[in-house]
Specification:
Layout: H1 11-26, H2 36-57, H3 60-86, H4 92-107, H5 117-133, H6 135-144, H7 147-173, H8 179-203, H9 207-231, E1 242-247, E2 250-253
Antiparallel strand pairs: 1-2
Helix pairs in contact: 1-2, 1-8, 1-9, 2-8, 3-4, 3-7, 4-6, 5-6, 5-7, 8-9
């Protein structure tokens, strides 16, 4: 049976996967299948997760973080794309300046906009400091005329960090069960349900149990394929650890994943 890569699912994917499993189970007579208590436990957690997900998605600061992260990503990618283009400039001075800045930029990582929020903020701060204080880099920056771009990146990054800290304060002032903690319970409850289904399929005589095993296996494979395709994309990174901050559009227990 295919095992879902639950730790790699975004919150929205995790929640929808659990809903899909519940729907497959509920399409049958759970009393006859002797799955009532396991089904009910999962259904209860799905309701809790759904409520938390909707609440966290509704945070105004959360949306600000998404917008500000997009703003700084655009500034960063604009700078990088310009420098890459200048690698082909007919003027040697322009080429050399662009290569120096690109070398420094790439030393911080090849996919900085896809780092988790905290890491991206720190990397951009460090890179900006390099370009503003190191003589050869500040000279190169002036040569390629990207000072305005760098200023935009610096402003956007600072604004993002300000709202990020505001989100932390908001969360601390309103302690509640995090989506991440419910995910952990949901994972355990899901596995208990599947274990019961598999046990009945192996030891019992009701063919519906094996049908359910097959259906959940196919569902898991389809979700896993989505994750695999996303992971192979150069612009996507697996989510990161939980601090109740939105990542890639979800209020995400940063399980590994802007």
């Amino acid at each position: 049976m295919n095992d879902p890569m639950l730790a790699r699912y975004r919150n929205s994917e995790f929640l929808q996967y659990m809903k899909d499993v519940l729907e497959l189970v509920n399409a049958n007579d759970v009393d006859v299948l002797q799955l009532t208590s396991q089904r009910d436990a999962l259904a209860t957690l799905i309701t809790q997760m759904d409520d938390l997900f909707q609440q966290e998605q509704g945070s105004g600061i959360t949306q600000e973080l998404i917008d500000l992260d997009d703003r700084r990503d655009k500034a960063f990618m604009g700078i990088k794309a310009t420098l890459e283009a200048l690698n082909y400039h007919y003027d040697d001075t322009q080429q050399s300046a662009a290569r120096s800045l690109l070398f420094n930029l790439n030393n911080y990582g090849t996919n900085i906009p896809r780092m988790n929020y905290q890491a991206e903020t720190a990397v951009i701060d460090s890179m900006v400091a390099d370009w503003e204080t190191e003589t050869d880099l500040s000279t190169a920056l002036a040569s390629v005329r990207l000072s305005d771009w760098l200023a935009e990146l610096k402003i956007a990054n600072a604004a993002f960090n300000d709202r990020y800290l505001a989100r932390i304060s908001e969360t601390a002032a309103n302690p509640a069960t995090s989506f991440y903690s419910i995910r952990e319970k949901g994972t355990t409850t899901y596995r208990e349900l599947v274990a019961h289904i598999q046990a009945h399929a192996t030891l019992g005589s009701n063919v519906v149990h094996q049908d359910l095993v097959n259906e959940i296996s196919v569902l898991a494979r389809q979700y896993n394929q989505t994750i695999s395709l996303r992971s192979s994309s150069p612009t996507e990174e697996v989510p990161v650890s939980d601090d109740t901050i939105v990542q890639n559009g979800d209020v995400n227990a940063e399980a590994s994943q802007s």
